[in-house]
Each structure stands twice: as C-alpha cells, then as structure tokens.
Amino acid sequence: MECALFLDFDGTLVEIAPRPDAVRVEPGLVADLERLRERLGGALAIVSGRPIAQIDGFLTPARFDAAGLHGVERRRDGEAVSGGRPEDHPDLRVQVERLQAQAAALDHVLIEDKGASVAVHWRLASGDDAQRAEALVRQAAEALGGAYRLQLGKAVGEIVPAQATKAVAIRAFMAEPPYAGRRAVFLGDDKTDEIAFASVSDDGGVAIRVGDGETAAARRLPDPAAVRALLAAWAAGGPIDPDALPPA
C-alpha cells in the first residue's frame, strides 16, 4: 500500500532553537520535500503546532498541505478547509493578556501568542523562572476549563482548543484525496505528538518518534538530521519502507 506522509516541523524537520523564530531550514530540504510530494502523488502534509503562515514562511516558496496550531488550522490542495480566528476565542484572549503581564517579570520566558492558542517557552530561563513559567501556564489552562487543554513539551507549555489534536487533523486528511486509501506515516518528536502516534498506529499506519524518550511509536530516528537524510533518500527514488526503520 502506498504511503501518506505527515511531518512535524520543530524537532523533526529542523532542530529546535532557543526561540521559535530562530530555527534554521537546511539547504535542500524544501526541494527534497517537493520531490517527495510529487512521488507520493501529493500525499504529504506538514502537521505542526505553529500557524500555517509560519510554516509557509520557513518553507518558502513551497506551499504544502498543512495542519497548524495542532489542527485548529488545516489546508489541503491550496484551500483552507478549517481555521481558527483569535476573535473566536475571547476567554483565551483574556488569559493571553494575563500571561504576558505575569511573564514580564521573568527573565527569558517567551509568550508566543498564536491567536487561537498560546505557548509559554522557558528553554532559556533559569530554574526558578522556568518553574514559575510552567506554573503560570498551568494556572491559565485551569482557569479556561474544559474548552481548552494544556500540552507540555520540551520546555514549553501550550494551551490549545480541546478538540484540536494532530490525530484529528491526520484522520481528516486521510478521509480525502490524495490521502484516502493510503497508509499514514507520521514523524514527530515531542510529547504533544504522542496522541497522534497512538491514533496512526491504531489505524494501521506507522508512527516514528524522532529522538529519545518513551513513546507509543513503533519506529525511531535519532534526530532531525536523520529525518532529512531519510526524506532525501526517499525523494531520490529509494524504497519507501518505514517498517524497515529501527524499532522504538
């Protein structure tokens, strides 16, 4: 069965940077993704916690199918098929303002306002400020109640609409051409990808964890450099056999 390929961005295609705007896209990656998309008959999508507009900016001039904000936004074949506007989330906007005010006293803590979600980054913060930053995002998520959920990742906590998951986004793609009838293959690197790993595996696909850590994925690659090398080989015509990758 032919594959449908779903790729996380940060920590999977590119190395994680101290700040979200500081990631570096390796030369040749975009061209490899375009060739691989063509080989897969269009069944390639980026599935990220970033907004789709940011993904486009990093992968310019290409515009791939994409799910952004953990599935709040989705685009297929150049058309937006779902989306999330900041004005649709008034309760979240209140918490974003509170987080920005409270984090102002913390060194190297970044509030990343994504409109329909918000992320608090403490990768560069000291121990005490990092703990305070995590406590702040936990408090904000608790105040929002069941309409939103908190996702904790690598030195980041993100509040997203409860119904938005990468698993739901991938299943939505898989119900539509050119993805329908193929076997889903999803590569991700973080705790926030584990729900999708389990979902893809349950649906008969292949989940691939990038990096170490316990995982629901069946396969593993060590780092983004290994991911890029694999994608380059697939783009060049090598056998696409995710089952041959090292076990997790």
What sequence of helices (H) and strands (E) makes up the elements? EHEHEEEHEEHEEHEHEEH
Q: CATH class of the largest domain, please? A: Alpha Beta
Rg over CA atoms, rounded to whole Å, is: 18 Å
Number of extended strands? 12
- The CATH superfamily of the largest domain is identified as HAD superfamily/HAD-like
Q: Please give the order of strands in the largest beta sheet.
A: 5-4-3-2-1-10-11-12
CATH architecture of the largest domain: 3-Layer(aba) Sandwich
CATH topology of the largest domain: Rossmann fold
β-sheet strand percentage: 15-25%
* Count of discrete domains: 2
Biggest sheet overview: 8 strands, mixed
Number of helices: 7
Which structural class fits the helix and strand makeup?
alpha/beta
What is the secondary structure topology, with strand pairs?
Blueprint lengths: L2 E5 L21 H11 L4 E4 L4 H7 L6 E4 L4 E4 L2 E4 L7 H14 L6 E4 L4 E4 L5 H18 L3 E6 L2 E6 L4 H9 L8 E6 L5 H9 L3 E5 L8 E3 L2 H12 L13
Helix pairs in contact: 1-7, 3-4, 5-6
Question: What labels would you give this structure?
Answer:
248 residues, alpha/beta, Rossmann fold, Alpha-Beta Plaits, 2 domains, 8-stranded mixed beta sheet, 7 helices, globular
Report a brief summary of the structure.
The chain is α/β, with parallel strands linked by helices. It has helices at residues 29-39, 52-58, 90-103, 127-144, 166-174, 194-202, 224-235; strands spanning 3-7, 44-47, 65-68, 73-76, 79-82, 110-113, 118-121, 148-153, 156-161, 183-188, 206-210, 219-221.
